[in-house]
Design goal:
The protein has 420 residues and is α/β, with parallel strands linked by helices. The protein contains 14 helices and 10 strands. It folds into 2 domains: 308 residues, Alpha/Beta hydrolase fold, catalytic domain (Rossmann fold), CATH 3.40.50.1820; 83 residues, 434 Repressor (Amino-terminal Domain) (Orthogonal Bundle), CATH 1.10.260.130. Strands 1-2-3-5-4-6-7-8-9-10 form a 10-stranded mixed β-sheet, with helices on both faces. 51% of the residues are buried.
């Protein structure tokens, strides 16, 4: 056999990883095609979270520690007979104002035994929830509830399926919490970390204190993943990550909004605006005109996937009481508080982003990596040549998965920053 040079080996490894991801992608596509015709009848029996008693907190919620499992129920993922044991788990968490709230996570474990080293690892996968209402929550979609808010969960299904195929357990938390607080970093990070605690300590999942833990998210899911990693040392020191991966990382939220404003993606700018105004009513609401306040009242519980077609081509200033709203100091201050990078995670990270991302400008990603590295983080960063936001999510996923697999296997990462 002839010698294979390094570049050829990398190309072959990439091809092999892409092939591995093909069957989960096909499965997700089949689910997406079949669900509109098969799920509505089933989902009529699945109440939305707002009216489902399982999502109601117990009266003594404050008496429990963060991550404590308070309730659980078995589910069939997407209402289908898949070879996965799955449960919805209710757990105690704490929101960014330090108030106790009920968190919901979906815990999935493959029925096959674990043959790898040590105990079965746990992957915390953050779906890009991107929502202002609980009907957009991953738990509702994964149970088989059909609504337009299920789209992001379905899009992320191949990555969760591939993790399960590898024998990993997966937890997907509704990290925005019961108030669906999009663009609230500390809140999201706490929801993720306490969801991990709940999954790790949930007896039926068969995990435990020795479980190796990883985390992964793309786009809005990357935001929650990295916030969890940033606050982990002080909020959840018992949750020790082996490694995390994140791609399409939202950094510089107002640059994202400006890029979407007035385009086919204008609903994304409106999602950002609604979230900031709703999360900061004392400073945000006065910035809206009558049309803006009416839009917030009407659409303030929508999913991002609802807002994009609704606000096609709209401009933020059409809803503003002040000129150039996206440059207003109050909006800038509220948004700055949610930006990543004020502290650096202490866990090895693999971060990737398209240089031609058409949703999240790459400049913010480059600056965030530099900030992490300046604070002593261990980062492998990839400025991907793959085009645009969504293709990069698929094309770079195999390498992200391989990075996690190496961390679960105990392969060490030398400290420092590297370009992948």
């Amino acid at each position: 056999m002839g010698r294979i040079d390094g570049s050829s080996a990398r190309r072959q490894a990439r091809t092999r990883d892409v092939r591995v991801l093909i069957w989960p992608t096909v499965l997700a596509a089949l689910l997406f095609v079949s669900m509109p015709s098969t799920v509505p009848a089933a989902s009529a029996d699945i109440p939305r979270p707002d009216v489902d008693a399982f999502y109601a907190p117990p009266a003594d919620l404050a008496a429990y520690p963060n991550g404590a499992v308070l309730d659980s129920r078995p589910i069939a993922v997407f209402g289908l007979p898949l070879p996965i044991s799955a449960w919805q788990v209710g757990y105690r968490t704490t929101d960014a104002s330090d108030s106790p709230v009920l968190g919901i996570a979906t815990v999935m474990v493959p029925m096959l035994p674990w043959f790898g080293p040590g105990t079965r690892p746990l992957l915390s996968y953050q779906v890009a929830e991107d929502s202002l209402g609980t009907r957009c929550a991953p738990s509702f979609a994964l149970r088989g509830g059909w609504a337009t808010g299920a789209v992001n969960t379905l899009i992320d299904t191949p990555f969760m399926v591939e993790a399960l195929r590898r024998g990993w357990a997966v937890v997907a938390s509704d990290y925005e919490g019961p108030q669906s607080r999009f663009l609230a970093g500390d809140n999201a990070g706490r929801g993720v970390l306490d969801g991990i605690r709940a999954a790790r300590d949930f007896p039926a999942a068969g995990l435990g204190p020795a479980t190796s833990i990883g985390a992964w998210g793309y786009s809005g899911g990357a935001f929650a993943t990295l916030w969890a990693a940033q606050i982990q040392p002080w909020y959840a020191p018992d949750v020790r990550f082996a490694g995390i991966t994140s791609g399409g990382v939202p950094a510089d939220w107002l640059a994202i909004a400006r890029g979407a404003d007035g385009t086919v993606q204008a609903g994304l700018a409106m999602l950002i605006l609604f979230a900031i105004v709703r999360n900061n009513p004392e400073s945000g609401v006065p910035l809206l005109n009558d049309r803006g306040r009416a839009a917030l009242a009407r659409d303030g519980a929508d999913c991002g996937s609802d807002l994009v077609p609704k606000y096609f081509g709209a401009r933020v200033d059409e809803f503003a009481a002040v000129p150039d709203l996206l440059s207003h100091p109050a909006l800038q201050a509220a948004t700055k508080a949610q930006e990543l990078g004020n502290s650096a995670p202490i866990v090895p990270m693999y971060l990737y982003h398209s240089t031609t991302d058409d949703v999240i400008p790459v400049a913010g990603f480059t600056e965030l990596v530099a900030r992490y590295c300046a604070q002593g983080a261990t980062v492998t960063s990839v400025h991907s040549a793959l085009p645009n936001h969504n293709p990069t999510a698929i094309g770079e996923a195999p390498r992200a998965m391989r990075y996690l697999a190496d961390r679960f296997a105990g392969v060490p990462v030398p400290p420092g920053c590297y370009s992948g």
